[in-house]
Amino acid sequence: MKHLVTIVCVGLVGGLFAGERTAWAWEQSQTCYDALMDCQEGLEPLPTAWEKPCISIYLNENGTSQMPFDTVHSIVESAVLAWNHPGVSSLGMHFSGLTNETRVGYNPYTSRNANIIVFRDDAWHEDPSIMALTSVTYRNSSGQIYDADMEINTYLYDFGVVSPRNERDVIDLQNTITHELGHVAGLDHSDVSTATMYPYSTGGVTYMQTLDADDLEAIGTIYPPGDAASCQFHDAYFEKPDCDMDKPCGSDGVCSVKMHQGAKKPFLALAIVLFALILTSVIRRYVARTS
Fold first, then answer.
1. How many domains, the chain?
2. pTM here?
């Protein structure tokens, strides 16, 4: 089931609906694209978004061997802050702390899920042209986002902090993470070359660290200011649950799962239905252009 779900949703691409807007080129991610025949029978493409735009972000405690952990920590904080514009949008992102979670995905059996940023120093199993990848889990019937996880391709690319001394050799980490956080929020790519959500980047680029007018228009439209209650976050360490991503957690207190005695089969059937409704979309977003 896990692999089938991934295969069904793979291939989401942006830029198909730009013609519908005249003033802006930003796009909101869709559950599927009818024009490419990616929608399953009976399903229509729907925009994806968080029901409550208060998004906690956790950084994997291992960081990357390419940079000091304190530097990575600071970069993630800065990238998260870039998406907070209270006067423009109700979107609220918060760097909530560290985690030992390394797995990408969403467990529908428990509420213990985290939006993580993890570095892949040892291996990269996706297209080698991809510098970073954001996987978003959403309900296919509504577009509601439940989880979003980011992987940084430090196996094939050199990340760091761009400076005049290394501007052509280093891929700026803050530039990359800020872009990927846009996908976490439900944004697709933009045709505006100065936008944070522009899909291509090379070494030495840093302009994506700051949101362009196109990006601000996007989050202001998807999450209008005052449209949601003020976000309240509590910094915490997210402990990796001891269960598999698609399995119920044990009774060790790490996970909280409501189960009724003598009703295991109905619970399992309900869980299977829920899992079928919630599909994981592997969004290949951040593509390197080599020259």
1. 1
2. 0.81
